[in-house]
Amino acid sequence: MGEIGIRHEPEKLFNMDESGFDFGGKGEFVLAPTKELMKGNPPRLTGNKKERLTAAFCISAAGALIPPFLIYPEPKPINATFLDNAFPGTEIQYTKKGWMDSATFLLFLRHLDRHILSDRPVVLLIDSVSSHMSVDIFQFAKEKNIELYRLLPNSTHFLQPLDNGVFGGLKKSWNTVLRRRLQEDPGAKTTKLVFAELLNKAINGIDMKRAAVSAFRATGTFPINKNRHGPEIFATARSFEQEVGLPERSPQKTSAQEAMEVFSSILSTPVRAHYNKRMLEGCDVETSPSFATYRRLHMRAFGPIIEANAVTNSQSTAADITVSTSIGDCCQLPMATPRPRRRKLDLPNHVTDPAHIKSMCLKTLQKARKLGEKEKKAKAKYMAAKGRETCKLCKRTHPKTSSEAVDWIACDVCNGWFHVLCVGNIQITVMEEFVCIFCKK
Q1: What is the number of other CB atoms lying within 10 angstroms of the CB of residue 334?
Q2: Is the dihedral of CA 395, 399, 405, 411 positive or negative?
Q3: Chain segment 172-208, per-residue pLDDT in tens
Q4: What 3-state DSSP class applies to 310?
Q5: CB of 302 within 8 A of CB of 261?
Q6: Closest CA to 214 of 69, 67, 59, 66
C-alpha cells in the first residue's frame, strides 16, 4: 500500500470473496419438549435446504459496498427476470455448477471496474483460490490499474475482512428475512426469482458501512496494525500427542484387565497354557465357550498374545516358511494406484506485478509448446499404426494425380507402403521382389 501511495486512502482498498446462501435458512432457538418426552427433531418452518446460490461481495475499507455479483447455475433462462427489487447495480452470471471460475472472475473484475472510482490505482485483496489465478485475469487487472494482492493460504479466517465482520451478520440477517417470509406466508418458496430481492432485504437489515470498517480494523488491514496478530497464530499446527502438559495415563487397571485376572484364576495352569498356544496359532474356531471368553477378554485387556521365543526366532522361521504359488496369488490384495499430486502454484503476494505476469506468460507458452509436441507425437504414432494408408514418397493417403482408387505396393526390405503411381506405375508379379528407392541408396 505504501509503494503505490494509498496507505492513507481507505476508499482505494477493497476485499472480495464469495459465499453461498441456503434457501432453507437456519433457526436461532426453538422451544420444544425434552428428548425424553419427544422423539426426533422438533418441527419448524424451513425452506428448501438442498439448494443454494453463490454471491460475490466486495467492500472497501471506507465502508463502500460494490453491488453484489450473483452466480446462478446454467441453463440461462430466456424470458425470466431475476433482478426485480434487487440491490441497485446487481449483476447475474451463469456457470455450469453455479460456482466461481476463472472466466466468471474476469467478468467480476469488469463489474468492479464499472463501479469503483476512476482515481486509480486501487488494491483488491483476494484469497488463493485457483479460479482467481489466471494470466488473463492478471493482465486485465493491470490494464485497469487494479492491483491484486492474494492473502496467505489458510489464513482467510483471520486476515480476510469479509470473513471476519461482514458475512456473519449478513447470514443472520438472511436467515431472519427467510423466517419472517415463512411466518407471513408458510407456503412461500425461496427460488431464483426472489433470491436477489431477499438478498437486498438482508443487506438493508445490517449497517454495512459500519460492519465493513470494523472488519478491516479487526484484521489489522486498515489502519495497518502489524501487532494485531501474534506469531503464534502463524505457527504450524501440532498434533494431539505433541501438546504439552497432557495428563499421564492412569496406572490403575481397566475393567477388562480385572475381569481377565478373575477368569484366569479360575482356570488351571495347563488350560491357560493350552489357550495361549491356541491364540498364538491364530485359532478362531474352538468348540469350547470357555476359550472364546478367554480370547475375547485377553484381546480387550492386553491385545494379541506374543511369546518371547516367537519374537527371537521370527527371522529364522520366516525364511523356512513356504507358501504355495496359487495360495499366494489368491491372498494378494489389489493395490490402489497412487494419484499424482497437483503441484501448487508458487505465486507472490502481489500477483499483478509485471515480472510475475511475464513469468506466467512464459510458463503458459512453454505449456502450449509441450502440448503441441505431445499432439505431434500422438499423430505420428497414429499414422504409423495406420500402416499403408500413408505413402512414404508423397506423404499422402491418396496421390494428387488421381482421384480414383489406387493400387499399393510394399517394400520387401523396410516394409513401407507406396502408391504404384508414385513409384512409376511399375508392373510386378507376386513372386518378384520390390525394393524402394530409400533402401536402394
Answers
A1: 5
A2: negative
A3: 999 999 989 888 888 888 888 999 999 999 999 999 9
A4: helix
A5: no
A6: 59
Give me the residues paired with residue 147 across strands. 123
Q: How far apart are CA 301 and CA 258, in angstroms?
A: 8
For cell 435446504, name the residue. 49
Radius of gyration from C-alpha coordinates of the chain: 37
- pTM for this predicted structure: 0.61
Q: Is 156 exposed, middle or buried (0-12, 13-18, 19+ CB in 10 A)?
A: buried
Three cell numbers, residue 110:
469488469
**pLDDT tens, residue by residue, 56-72:** 999 999 999 999 999 99
Whose cell is 519374537? That residue is: 311
Residue 238 has phi, psi (to 5 degrees) of -110, 150
Distance CA 122, CA 10 (A): 10
Take residue 209 and report the three cell numbers written for it.
Answer: 458501512
Residues 86/66, Cβ–Cβ less than 8 Å: no
- With residue 277 as reference, give the H or E element that holds it: helix 269-280
Specify whether the CB–CB gap between 417 and 399 falls below 8 A.
no
**135 CB-side CA count, 13 A:** 11
Tell me the helix, strand and coil percentages in the chain, rounded to 5: 40, 10, 45
Q: Which amino acid is at 324?
A: S
441 neighbors 411 (Cβ within 8 angstroms)? no
The answer to whether 55 touches 19, Cβ cutoff 8 Å, is yes
- What would the grid cell of residue 297 be? 477378554
Residues contacting 182, CB < 8 A, separation 6+: 45, 46, 47, 188
C-alpha cell at 396: 499422402
